[in-house]
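Side project, low priority. Logging it here so it doesn't get lost.
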Amino acid sequence: MNGVNHTKASIAANSKGDLSLLQITDTHLFADRKGELLGIKTVDSYDAVIKHAEKYVGACDAILSTGDLSQDHTEQSYLNFSERIKALKTPCYWLPGNHDMQSVMLPALLHEGLAQTKQIISDHWQIILLDSQLEGVPHGHLSDEQFEFLEEKLVEFSDKHTLIAVHHHVLPIGAAWLDQHILKNNEQFIALIAKHSNVKAVLSGHVHQAFDLIQKNVRYLTSPSTCVQFKPNSHDFAIDNKEPGYRHLVLTKSGEIETQVERIKAGEFITDENATGY
């Protein structure tokens, strides 16, 4: 796991003082566009999601890609990600997931102009991007350095509403096989943000499904993958029949979040319900 990179970006709010974002996550790309994950050609499903999201071109201020961009750890898989995300003509900020290999990911995306960014500052909001990857295991863990960075920015920008983005889900989603791969030191995370009233939401990928819950005035959100979907509330591994998708969010000047999940056209991709090997 890499240390904290303090690269910071700035985005101006729109005329209303709001920020409009897309979350495009868990693309699981291969170098070969014929590469499949559980019955889906992930480059093709990613292409379909990008085409669907083009309706937001000119209306969104940033894209957040919350990990698992690659499935095969190749440089080409990250170039495939970059090539397509650029079609949306919107700045893209990313963080690593458990399937990513940072020694390949970092230089490949930097070469494409997608530098690792840990904080985004706007007129009324800050977005903090955390690295929860623990190399070699599927569950998440935040290092002491990540916690220090988080608290430092919550104090320094206490006047701004805060959205925290992290790959692993923080709260259990009710799927036993997935919840064992949660952010393992989530209690420490929850205790830290409870001390800071400016934290409004936590946005995650990882679980390949939509989840939306408010706990102690903080909204916890997860979103569909651009490829295969996992069935909600399943004790054992199970694939859902819902289509690939993404999330649109509006962070309002007042600190509210307006959001909806978008999905591509039904029937465009078919999953094999008996597939295994994730």
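Brief comment: The chain has one domain: 8-263.
Revisit when time allows.
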